[in-house]
């Protein structure tokens, strides 16, 4: 057998053992390994920036477990408010992506669901919701536009007329000083003669938003969405009195504990009394009968 024949046989055997696709995959694996060595945070003599401590990670994961509806921005604000840190939403997102696994069947438990059985311009609006027996209830919400503080809620079961509208406003603003202006939309309910007379007696000037443009009344519209998502969609109520109690508890949580983007992560009131918690020693405080659980100083 000549040398050329031997070379041909060896080439054929080699082509049978190693295919071109195998070489390509092997080359791709080498390239990937090369860049892993170059840019991996493990190994090398130059350490990267130090990330959050284990205590911070545990606190972030725990607040997400207890409040699954909180987003990364909201979680970062609540952690910064409780512990005096300066985390951003991207850091929280990376931590949750690596350490948080959502529990199946999110939302409040049945125990939680069944256990619910100050300023110159105020914004006012009305919205409707239904009880567990499907009876319609109207809710008036009054918001201080400067501080984003909830002044109060007024509740009415059934239809609303001028007399009931004035009563709801008086209930929502009880024990509060009167503003110079109130902002309302063009709902026909705010056209009642009794309503306008009531404002004249109180020397309050009414400012109307643009017709059919909800964005011209943004703060109170957003508040209504928050009340629906965070409270009414998560709990039942039986009567108007039961609804008033739940709204009162939500008002306290919203004003004193809930962080707000427009106030740089601070609640509307009560920030001066908030103590910075220690990551080694803190407790979880329940709000609205367990709907919200926030870390606080022990």
UniProtKB/TrEMBL annotation:
<dbReference type="GO" id="GO:0015074">
    <property type="term" value="P:DNA integration"/>
</dbReference>
<protein>
    <submittedName>
        <fullName>Helix-turn-helix domain-containing protein</fullName>
    </submittedName>
</protein>
<dbReference type="InterPro" id="IPR001584">
    <property type="entry name" value="Integrase_cat-core"/>
</dbReference>
<feature type="domain" description="Integrase catalytic">
    <location>
        <begin position="114"/>
        <end position="276"/>
    </location>
</feature>
<dbReference type="Pfam" id="PF13683">
    <property type="entry name" value="rve_3"/>
</dbReference>
<dbReference type="InterPro" id="IPR036397">
    <property type="entry name" value="RNaseH_sf"/>
</dbReference>
<dbReference type="InterPro" id="IPR012337">
    <property type="entry name" value="RNaseH-like_sf"/>
</dbReference>
<dbReference type="GO" id="GO:0003676">
    <property type="term" value="F:nucleic acid binding"/>
</dbReference>
């Amino acid at each position: 057998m000549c040398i050329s024949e031997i070379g041909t046989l060896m080439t054929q055997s080699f082509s049978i053992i190693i295919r071109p696709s195998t070489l390509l995959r092997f080359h791709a694996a080498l390239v990937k390994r090369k860049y892993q060595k170059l840019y991996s945070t493990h190994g090398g003599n130059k350490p990267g920036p130090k990330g959050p401590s284990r205590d911070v990670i545990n606190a972030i994961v725990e607040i997400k477990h207890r409040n699954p509806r909180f987003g990364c921005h909201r979680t970062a604000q609540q952690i910064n408010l409780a512990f005096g840190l300066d985390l951003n939403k991207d850091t929280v997102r990376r931590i949750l992506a690596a350490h948080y696994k959502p529990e199946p069947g999110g939302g409040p438990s049945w125990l939680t669901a069944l256990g619910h059985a100050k300023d110159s311009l105020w914004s006012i609006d009305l919205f409707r919701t239904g009880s567990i027996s499907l009876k319609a209830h109207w809710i008036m919400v009054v918001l201080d536009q400067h501080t984003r503080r909830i002044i109060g809620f007024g509740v009415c079961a059934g239809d609303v007329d001028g007399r009931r509208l004035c009563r709801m406003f008086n209930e929502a603003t009880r024990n509060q000083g009167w503003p110079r202006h109130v902002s309302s939309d063009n709902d026909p309910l705010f056209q009642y003669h009794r309503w306008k007379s009531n404002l004249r007696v109180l020397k309050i000037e009414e400012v109307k938003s643009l017709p059919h443009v909800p964005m011209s009344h943004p703060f109170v519209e957003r508040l209504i969405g928050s009340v629906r998502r965070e409270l009414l969609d998560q709990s039942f109520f039986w009567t108007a009195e039961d609804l008033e109690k739940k709204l009162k508890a939500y008002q306290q949580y919203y004003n004193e504990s809930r962080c707000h983007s427009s106030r740089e992560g601070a609640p509307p009131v009560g920030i001066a009394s908030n103590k910075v918690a220690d990551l080694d020693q803190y407790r979880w405080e329940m709000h609205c009968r367990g709907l919200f659980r926030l870390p606080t100083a022990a």
